[in-house]
Specification:
One of its GO terms (cellular component) is cytosol. By secondary structure, the protein is of the alpha+beta class. It has 16 helices and 23 strands. Helices cover 34% and strands 22% of the residues. It has a 7-stranded mixed sheet with strand order 17-18-16-15-21-22-23. It has a 6-stranded mixed sheet with strand order 3-2-1-5-14-13, with helices on both faces. A hairpin with a 3-residue loop joins strand 15 and strand 16. Helix 4 crosses helix 5. It starts with 5 loop residues before the first strand and ends in a 7-residue tail after the last helix. The model has no long low-confidence stretch (mean pLDDT 91).
Length: 510
């Protein structure tokens, strides 16, 4: 390792793709970002074009290298982090997707999940996968694709042919990490964290589960090989004749929330972080024990390094947080996200207004796919500043819902919470979060910890960094937000809980 080499991280998110280049100190050398199209074919359906995602990935990698004046050969490794659960199937020979990717937010398989509930299969699924049976995860999405896909690309097979082709190994299933690894290396591989989000993977045996494959009729022949998140053997290398013109090891991959856990250096049992993106994801490292939740949390794989035991985590998945701020902009209440803090501060309170951003149902700890967004408590005197403040408070209230479940499940007090993601640039939100949860909020200097985590995983695998302790030394605090013990939050939290109840079980068939 020399001073003029770096590690690159592809951060393929829900709304766009970012490529970041990090130096040995964990500092950002260059980055580039491009959005991709959000496709909404029907209410509650969300899709992405996988070909567009790959094209945008190549574009941002090239742009960041050009901006920094770097040659691709100066990258010692590439890491990948990705929107989790988003599911796609492609033709093994041609590489063409049979249909768009079905995004994690998509609710089209809610009826199928209710069938599982009626058949009393939820507990068995939870015991093996650590997951709630929900349309959020990949299994029902893959099942839907095999049952219903009308191929959009070159492959014009009829849906009835798809299962035969899947069983013959002619089709590849993958989450977005798998798709990018395939495009970069030609290998059909996923990592343990992404596999743990499919609802097809036993997190105790650390293997694809035959009974779950049978339940969802997803043949094992189409599933990727599962490898560590930081892989000393690499997933493969890029093609010297490809768009980078160099052979670079692709050596690390983590689902976005696990990548943020790794980037925040939450390597020890009891370490916790919350990432504020399109949704919010609160993870608590539980060490080598897969702690079962009695309070609506997910048990998930945190990360694994080559030759080392799996580290597990408890997770509270909140579907809509940053997306609620985007909604404020979409409906014209704000011009940009930066306005929210000033508008919220312009009033002393929400004046009794509560906002429940259940646009795509409620995640942890409620798990109600039929909940919908709700505003309660408005009067003729309610202004947009009250609604904006209520939206920001809803992010903090949802996090408290999860924090209380975490404490109950793990028996660990959360004295400090590391935060990251776009919304934490908002000081008002960070202080509200500290007050409402009742714990110190710590914001790092590098808040793009998702990309940083995948860079760390890849860099450790190739020896760019020696060990996790070296990474801890890179982590630096930007600002701490202590909780205000005098903040009057308990009464407001009770009212928030009442508002949540009013949002539940709203989306029913006519």
């Amino acid at each position: 390792m020399t001073s003029d080499t770096y590690v690159g991280a592809i951060d393929q998110g829900t709304t766009g793709t970012r490529f970041m280049i990090f130096d040995h100190g964990g500092e950002v050398v260059a980055q580039a970002y491009e959005k991709h199209e959000q496709i909404y074919p029907e209410p509650g359906w969300v899709e992405h074009d996988p070909v567009e995602i790959w094209e945008k990935t190549q574009a941002v990698v090239t742009e960041a290298l050009d901006t920094a004046g770097l040659d691709a050969g100066q990258l010692e490794a590439l890491g990948i982090t990705n929107q989790r659960e988003t599911t796609m199937i492609w033709d093994r020979d041609s590489g063409s997707p049979i249909y768009n990717a079905i995004v994690w937010q998509d609710r089209r398989t809610t009826d199928r999940v209710e069938e599982l509930e009626e058949a009393d299969k939820v507990e068995d699924i939870r015991a093996k996968t650590g997951l709630e049976a929900d349309a959020y995860f990949s299994a029902t999405k893959a099942e839907w694709l095999l049952d219903n896909a009308d191929p959009l690309k070159t492959q014009r097979a009829q849906p009835a042919d798809l299962r035969d082709r899947a069983a013959a190994g002619e089709l590849c299933f993958g989450t977005i990490d798998t798709w990018l690894i395939w495009q970069l290396t030609g290998n059909h591989i996923t990592d343990v964290t992404n596999a743990s989000r499919t609802m097809l993977f036993d997190i105790h045996d650390m293997a694809w589960d035959d009974e779950l494959q049978e339940e969802f009729d997803v043949p094992g022949e189409m599933l990727p090989e599962v490898r560590p998140s930081s892989d000393d053997d690499f997933y493969g290398t890029t093609d010297a004749d490809g768009f980078l013109g160099a052979e670079i090891p692709v050596a690390g991959a983590l689902g976005d929330q696990q990548a943020a856990l790794f980037g925040q250096t939450c390597f020890d049992e009891g370490d916790a972080k919350n990432t504020y993106g399109t949704g919010s994801f609160f993870l608590l490292n539980t060490g080598e024990e897969a702690v079962e939740s009695d309070h609506g949390l997910l048990t998930t794989v945190g990360f694994q390094r080559s030759g080392e035991p799996v580290q597990y985590a408890l997770e509270g998945a909140i579907f809509v947080t940053g997306a609620a701020i985007e909604w404020l902009e979409d409906v014209g209440l704000i011009n940009n996200a930066a306005q929210t803090a000033d508008l919220a501060r312009s009033v002393d309170s929400t004046d009794g207004v509560y906002f429940v951003p259940a646009f795509t149902g409620l995640g942890a700890p409620h798990w109600d796919g039929r909940a919908r967004g709700t505003i309660v408590g408005m009067t003729r005197g309610t202004g947009k500043e009250h609604i904006v403040r209520a939206v920001l408070e809803s992010i903090a209230f949802q996090t408290r819902d999860v924090a209380e479940a975490m404490v109950a499940d793990a028996g660990l007090d959360i004295n400090s919470l590391k935060v990251d993601g776009g919304a934490v640039k908002n000081d008002f939100l960070c202080q509200q979060q500290a007050d409402i949860v009742g714990t110190e909020i710590v914001r790092p200097e590098v808040d793009e910890t998702t990309a940083l985590g995948s860079a760390y995983a890849a860099g450790l695998a190739v020896g760019y960094w020696d060990d996790p302790e070296e990474l801890r030394n890179n982590w630096r605090v930007d600002r701490e937000f202590p909780a205000d013990d005098d903040a009057d939050v308990d009464g407001r939290y009770e009212r928030w809980s009442e508002a949540v109840e009013r949002s539940r079980d709203w989306a029913r068939e006519a």
